[in-house]
Every structure is written in structure tokens, then in C-alpha cells.
Automatic annotation (TrEMBL):
Pfam families attached to this UniProt entry: Mu-transpos_C_2
Name by which UniProt lists this protein: IS21 family transposase
Domain Transposase for insertion sequence element IS21-like C-terminal: 312-380
Region (Disordered), start-end ranges: 477-498
InterPro entries attached to this UniProt entry: IstA-like_C
Domain of life: Bacteria
């Protein structure tokens, strides 16, 4: 038992009239212990052991003098721990003092000297209260995911309401202005409104073009000014550096919590869209948790806050960035150091590009001509084989070593079935003619589904048909087979019930079944026998030698 319990037992037995000696015998203690227990119910505090001496003790005053001298020194010319250690060794000939000893003492003593000098505590935080629907915080964080079996770094956007703690997250390929805007639009649509008070931000380049001195004044980017005006956002820009991070500690902590609880283990997804669907589900599930020692859950607080948010504007805001690059001779455009392909017919012309956070859409006038998923790396390229088919049909020799063919194989659009048919066509018709036949097959993808064409190629290989027409015929058969399989063979009534015994008759079969009978006689070639030449028999005499 503890000493407090021992004292309580001694005092309880003493109340029954037991003598001092009997108490000593029963509890196995000495005379002084019994006297102390009877004098006070609370044991005396344990005496502290004298502090152990250290080899740094003779130099503590010297270290304190150096730290006090730093109070008035410029921030970039103050003593570091290494500099203090070097001075102790060189100027004071400190023997037996290690760098670890100096580092431990300086880490404790520096803040104490700062406080003793009246400069205030080194770290002090003031609790804050927030009105419902009034404030929010926004920030980006870095996350690592496994995207299509490759480890990549992405950015995590977070908008957190300060009162309820409700946060909305979104993962983007980059942290540019497009992702900044799209994150806001998604968050406001999920929350159902916009905070009517201040929204706290870092001095990120997507919003701030220039920080003016040590004040809160900022020069904002033009598109950010238009965006916040459209949604009625009142921004509050935090101080640069770590001090600014403390001014929006709610979202800073939220990103770390979300990363530890939902991004561990590392998510393995095929696309960012798939990951964002998971994130939406996680955000909804997080409404059932409590933050710290709050009395209610996030969802309960958000139910109070949601009706107080400002209504969303009726008209949408175009979050994409409009660019007008020129198509080079390789049928490519350059956007943010990366290259994307466009149809070869646009070489030399300017196109309009709408750059979004995760994709870019290319227009020729008002017609959409290409759509690419945005590249994560820099100085990379994303090419579509379909964009080069008109060029390759005139230059078939360029196809085997083309970069676009390599990317098509990696993306699964050019399968081993294509390679097998290509090799057989080249063997039968020659390299040039066989490659042109392959390109004609690839052109079919503009009108037919990829899986139907692959099925047609496989069927053509088994039949030994090495022409594009044969592949097209087999692909159409596969498409018709799929359509007949997917189409219901029984008509559905208006109420949704299927009548029993109903059948479906194809129009061609119905026409053949209702044709009138053909009573015409079978054709004959007997009349053509008159045109044949007949020879006389050899025994019959000639008519010229006859006599009467």
C-alpha cells in the first residue's frame, strides 16, 4: 500500500484504542512512523536529493553573460550553441565540457533570460472564441500518394470553419491559382454558403502579388480580386513566417490531423478523381468526431453554423486560366513547361487553352479539339496517338520509333494485339503498306469503341484477314453483339412491369416473313440451244451430186 493508505490504517486502528507498540507490530513500522501518522494524515514530502554536480557548472555564469549580451544584438548576429561552445573552449579553456551539455543548458536558459529581462514569455497563446458562420481558415499542405503505381507528391487544399471545425479537403496536382480557386468553389458548394466574416490566408502567390512592409496591407492579384468579389470573401492575411502560422492554427492542425488519419497508409489510386471521391466520404464521416474537449461533435456545431452562411452567387465563376499558345511543327503546345499534343491540322495556328487544376481543355475557336490530364512533373510531354494519324499515314516509317507510340503502349491504348496484327500485315503486304493498314485500323477509334476494335483485330488475326476493312467488319459485329446483349428483349410497360410471353421481332425478319409467294416459273436456257452449230453425219451424201 501507499504511504497515505498506511497512515490512514494506523490512524483508524489507533481510534480503536490500540497502543503504540501494538500499532508498530501490526503494521511493521517504527515508533516515529506511528507518531507521524497520528500527528498528520498526510505524509511529509520526500526530501529532494541535492543536485548532481556537472562539469559545466563553473561556466554557467559565462554562458549567461553571452545570452544576456544577445538581448540587444541584431537577430542575425546572436550566439548560436556552437559559437558558445567554441568560445568556452578557446577563451575559457573549458575541459570536459561537451557540446551536448552546452546545448541542453542553452535550450533551457535562453528562454528564462528572455523572460527575466522583461521581454515577455517566449511562447504565449491566447484562447480565441469564434462566432458561428463568421470566420474560416484556408491553407495548402503537401501529401504523397501512389498514383497509377507511381509515388507522386500532390497538394491538399483545406478550408476550415473556425466555429464548428468543419473542414473540406481536396487534392490537386499542383498548388497554383487554378487549384486555389477550384478548392474554394468545391468547399463553398459542400458547405452551402460563404462565411460572412473574415477568411484567414497565408501570403501565397495565388492571392498576394506583394507584401507591403510590416503592415497587413497587400497588393492582390487581379484574378483573386475578381474571385473574392464574386463570392463576397473578406480576406485576412497573416504575418509572414511562423508567426503567421499561429494566426491560423486551426487549419494548420487540421491538415496534419487529416494527413495522419486518412493518408496513412499511403493511398493507392488510379486517378486524382478517385482519391477526391474518397476524401469527400472521409470529410462526411469526420462530422461524428469531437475536437478536443468540446461538448458536441463537428456535425452538431455545423448544423448551427450552416444556416448563418451567406448564400452562394447564382452565376458560376470560371476558375480556369485562359492561354493562347501557338501549335509548333511537332503538333504540340507548351503550357507551364510541359508539352501537350493537338490534332496535326492545327500546326502553325493559335489555339485557346483553358487550364484547370487537374486538366486542360484545348479549343479551336469554339470547338473542343483535345483534352489532357495535367502533368505533375516539369518539362514532360503528354501525346495522343490519334492526333498524329494523318501525318503517319503519309510517313509510315516514322511510326515504329515515335514517342507517341511509346506513350500509347504505356497507357494501354496500343495493345499487344495491335502489335501482332501489325507484324502480320507487314509480313504479308510489306512494311509501308502494312503500317498504313494499321493506321487505317487506328482511325476506326474515332467512330468505334476501343474494346470493339481490339476484339475485331483479334478475330481478324485468327481468320488471317490482314486488311482494315476486315477489322472494321469484325469490330462492327462485336459492337452489334454488345448492343443486342445490353438491349432488353422484352418491352417494358409504362408502369415498369414486363408482360409475360412478349417477344421482340426484328424489322428485317418481319419483312421477310410477310413477303408474298413467288409463283414465277424457274428460268430456262433451252431457247439458247438454237444458237448452237449442228454438224451433219459423215454417211449422208451431199445434195450437189444428187440426180433425178
Amino acid at each position: 500500500m501507499s504511504k497515505v493508505e498506511l497512515y490512514a490504517a494506523i490512524r483508524r486502528d489507533a481510534c480503536t484504542g490500540m497502543s503504540n507498540r501494538a500499532l508498530q507490530t501490526k503494521h511493521g513500522v517504527g515508533f516515529r512512523t506511528v507518531q507521524k501518522a497520528l500527528a498528520s494524515a498526510w505524509p511529509e514530502p520526500r526530501k529532494k536529493l541535492p543536485q548532481r554536480t556537472s562539469k559545466i557548472d563553473p561556466y554557467k555564469n559565462v554562458i549567461d553573460q553571452m545570452l544576456r549580451a544577445d538581448l540587444d544584438a541584431p537577430r542575425k548576429q546572436r550566439h548560436t550553441t556552437k559559437r558558445i561552445f567554441d568560445r568556452l573552449v578557446s577563451e575559457h579553456h573549458a575541459v570536459g565540457v561537451s557540446y551536448q551539455m552546452v546545448r541542453a543548458y542553452v535550450a533551457q536558459r535562453r528562454s528564462e533570460i528572455w523572460t527575466e529581462s522583461g521581454r515577455g514569455p517566449s511562447k504565449a497563446f491566447v484562447p480565441q472564441s469564434h462566432r458561428p458562420g463568421a470566420e474560416a481558415e484556408v491553407d495548402f499542405g503537401e501529401v504523397t500518394i501512389r498514383l497509377a503505381d507511381e509515388m507522386v507528391k500532390c497538394v491538399l487544399f483545406s478550408l476550415r470553419l473556425s466555429y464548428s471545425g468543419k473542414a473540406v479537403h481536396r487534392v490537386f496536382a499542383s498548388g497554383g491559382q487554378e487549384a486555389f480557386f477550384e478548392g474554394h468553389v468545391h468547399a463553398f458548394s459542400v458547405l452551402g454558403g460563404v462565411p460572412f466574416g473574415k477568411v484567414r490566408y497565408d501570403n501565397l502567390k495565388a492571392a498576394v502579388a506583394q507584401v507591403l512592409g510590416f503592415s497587413r496591407a497587400r497588393v492582390e492579384t487581379a484574378r483573386w480580386t475578381a474571385f473574392r468579389s464574386h463570392y463576397g470573401i473578406e480576406p485576412f492575411y497573416c504575418q509572414p513566417g511562423k508567426q503567421g502560422a499561429h494566426e491560423k492554427g486551426g487549419v494548420e492542425g487540421d491538415i496534419g490531423w487529416f494527413r495522419r488519419n486518412h493518408m496513412v497508409p499511403i493511398p493507392d489510386v488510379a486517378s486524382l478523381a478517385e482519391l477526391n471521391v474518397l476524401i469527400d466520404a472521409w470529410d462526411l464521416a469526420d462530422e461524428t468526431r469531437r475536437i478536443g474537449n468540446r461538448a458536441r461533435t463537428i456535425g452538431e456545431y455545423f448544423a448551427i453554423e450552416a444556416p448563418l452562411l451567406k448564400m452562394l452567387p447564382t452565376e458560376p465563376f470560371e476558375t480556369g486560366l485562359l492561354l493562347t499558345p501557338r501549335v509548333d511543327r511537332y503538333s504540340q503546345i507548351t503550357v507551364r513547361t510541359n508539352r501537350y499534343s493537338v490534332p496535326a491540322r492545327l500546326i502553325g495556328r493559335r489555339v485557346r487553352v483553358m487550364l484547370h487544376a487537374s486538366e486542360l481543355v484545348i479549343y479551336d475557336g469554339r470547338e473542343e479539339v483535345a483534352r489532357h490530364e495535367r502533368l505533375l512533373a516539369k518539362a514532360a510531354s503528354r501525346l495522343e496517338l490519334d492526333h498524329y494519324l494523318e501525318v503517319l499515314i503519309r510517313k509510315p516509317g516514322a511510326l515504329p520509333g515515335a514517342t507517341v507510340l511509346e506513350q500509347a503502349r504505356a497507357a494501354g491504348k496500343f495493345t499487344p494485339v495491335h502489335d501482332e496484327w501489325w507484324a502480320a500485315a507487314c509480313k504479308a503486304h510489306g512494311d509501308a503498306a502494312g503500317t498504313r493498314a494499321l493506321i487505317e485500323v487506328l482511325l476506326l477509334t474515332r467512330h468505334m469503341a476501343h474494346e470493339h476494335i481490339v476484339t475485331g483485330i483479334a478475330t481478324a488475326i485468327r481468320a488471317g484477314a490482314l486488311t482494315a476493312d476486315a477489322v472494321a467488319l469484325e469490330a462492327r459485329k462485336a459492337a452489334d453483339s454488345d448492343s443486342s446483349t445490353n438491349t432488353s428483349t422484352e418491352p417494358v410497360t409504362v408502369s415498369g412491369s414486363v408482360p409475360t410471353g412478349a417477344t421482340v421481332t426484328f424489322l428485317t425478319e418481319r419483312r421477310l416473313a410477310h413477303l408474298p409467294p413467288d409463283n414465277r416459273p424457274l428460268p430456262s436456257v433451252a431457247a439458247y440451244d438454237q444458237l448452237l452449230r449442228h454438224r451433219r453425219p459423215a454417211a449422208q451424201p451431199s445434195a450437189q451430186g444428187d440426180t433425178s
